[in-house]
Design goal:
Two copies of one chain form a homodimer. Chain A is built from twelve helices and nine strands. By secondary structure, the first copy, chain A, is an alpha/beta fold. Chain A is globular, with a radius of gyration of 21 Å.
Chain lengths: 356, 356
């Protein structure tokens, strides 16, 4: 009976090319004990969508799960028997209601939060071309407070790279606490939006400019900042373009970088490879990994994504289901200034990704 | 003027053999803006005590800091001028008041918390021989809830290794949710304490036994568990004995390990070496690093520690100042079963450690 899980892992791995182990299957069964919603199952099982989808389909074909007429995914009687025999249980959610589990509550600076929400209401809509999907305003403000409480904001030169759909750069600028804020993004709409607000509010140490991170940085961006902040897609090429290049903007040792990494578009196996790149190649140390720090709002283009197309059910997400962990890294002596060009092959999407 | 920080870093590194960069000095100056208490300065600057102490002394000799007649450490007028010129500011604390910044509030299971507090009141006192110093009851219970919310408790075989001064093993046993709990520690007093409670409460799937982690595990402990939990001293030898051997108890891929690592007895440079060992040698991935998760109560033997002897002031700590980050790791295929003997040279204390 225990071999059911390994067996499903093997079959799904062959089908999807997403690396899996048997505990990934266990987590899906646990998740179904709590929710029938496919997108919540993805969230609770911390798996790439293609893998979660195929696992559900495989478990349906083995009569461990079934789908009811309202697109709810449920355990069959056989499913409950299997779970009991293998010792699989529901997993409780104990995350803090006050700070939404981040450890840093967004309302610790209510004025910043209110100002940000007012300004963000007219933000450009997320579009599929650039893998956009904004985090909640609570996430953006919590990021800023987290960064400030690590001594990485006041008096610092900060670059916010290629993730301005979250308006994190704007929120950093609004604090007026950094020495300098440079916001870069590929999307002209976001750059114009930020610059209009920056000008209107007379924030004279912040600016936004268009940049495609596939291109190497010019000399005036290399090793000129104390802090970088970004939120990459989870392909290797994007990891290099966003994180590698982020590290290259840092001036010297003891500087810090912040970014989100998700398990919804990347397996835990790939996370290990990302971590190896950080330590062995880029020469930085990881100081923080806070799971589920970044909550993403649903994007209008969801029905057009690969994720929606491969899902085992048609029902669209209703609540927040896409989350990422918040990483902080720190440079140490000898860290690498990586600034190669990147071809755009497999930049946004590969076998583990699906939400673009 | 900017060279003051690099200069101090260099001098102190030579004196203490603790690796430093100039931002470590910046952090000490920031900390002094918030508190005059040396132990709180260590806490806020995330530095090994010998380094923090020598930095304070060096900054005093350069007339950037001074000590008043109540053992408060303060900035001189010159110190304020230097801070202003270099753009050094106070760092705010935005950690959540509800969950104490952990993201997982201890009161999410009030019954477990109350039961634990009642039982722990008669716990054996922390002794210096074994580098003991207990975390707060709120920390212990939060650890259990964190582990449970990751799917690492219910139905699992759990080993709690060499850190039972925190009574984490007892707290795990009290939930009665694991399949099996094995608690090992070098201290007979703690083992007897746990076994008495386990027997009295009729918890029949838990047991405690004496073990010295410097010795290799016997076959009946290797690869027999789903989860290990520990809290090592920060020397390399102890890291291997606690974490390396912890990983060796895990049965297969997708299993998890939990442990604390502090920056009060270890530099960020050494953290990088620990992380390299985890990824490159042991073949595991890091899934969580939650800073300041573990709060340690002060230990009675503090005046006898090297930390107290080298501090720049005589005043003992009044509040919590010693914290550690909470790590979670996960095994992936090919992870290493490391089980070599360890000599006891430099097991508890080296150039960066001081609180034993």
């Amino acid at each position: 009976m225990g071999s059911v899980l390994s067996d499903v892992a093997k079959v799904v791995q062959e089908k999807t090319q997403v690396r899996l182990h048997k505990r990934n299957i266990e987590r899906v069964i646990s998740a179904v004990m709590t929710t029938g919603d496919f997108w919540e199952i993805v969230d609770r099982s911390d798996l790439p969508v293609p893998a979660a989808s195929e696992i559900v389909k495989e478990l349906i074909s083995r009569e461990i799960l079934f789908v009811d007429d309202r697109d709810n995914i449920l355990l069959t009687q056989r499913g409950y028997d299997v779970a009991k025999e293998l010792g699989i249980y529901e997993i409780p959610d104990y995350s803090c209601q006050a700070c939404e589990g981040r450890g840093t509550p967004f309302y610790a600076d209510k004025e910043l939060y209110r100002t940000f929400v007012e300004l963000a209401k007219d933000r450009p809509k997320a579009i599929q071309d650039f893998d956009q999907g904004s985090v909640t305003p609570e996430t953006t403000v919590s990021r800023v407070l987290f960064i400030d409480s690590r001594g990485d904001l006041r008096g610092k030169d900060v670059i916010v790279m290629g993730a301005e759909d979250d308006l994190t750069g704007l929120a950093i600028a609004l604090t007026r606490k950094a020495n300098r804020v440079l916001i870069i993004d590929i999307d002209q709409r976001l750059i114009d939006f930020d610059n209009a607000i920056i000008k209107e509010l007379g924030i004279d140490n912040a600016e936004a400019m268009v940049w495609d991170l596939r291109n190497p940085y010019s000399e005036d961006l290399l090793q000129k900042f104390d802090i970088f902040i970004t939120d990459p897609p989870e392909t290797f090429a994007a990891f290099r373009a966003f994180i590698g290049r982020g590290i290259a903007t840092l001036r010297d040792e003891g500087c810090a970088g912040y970014f989100g990494l998700t398990l919804r578009d990347s397996s835990i196996f790939r996370w290990k490879e990302f971590q190896e790149t950080l330590l062995n190649e880029y020469g930085v140390v990881i100081t923080d990994i806070v799971q589920d720090f970044n909550d993403y709002m649903n994007w209008e283009y969801h029905p057009e994504t690969r994720a929606a197309q491969i899902a085992p059910v048609k029902r669209n997400p209703s609540g927040i289901w896409y989350r990422s962990a918040w990483y902080r890294i720190e440079t140490l002596p000898g860290f690498k200034v990586w600034n190669e060009p990147i071809s755009d092959d497999v930049f946004y999407l590969d076998e583990e990704g699906s939400t673009t």
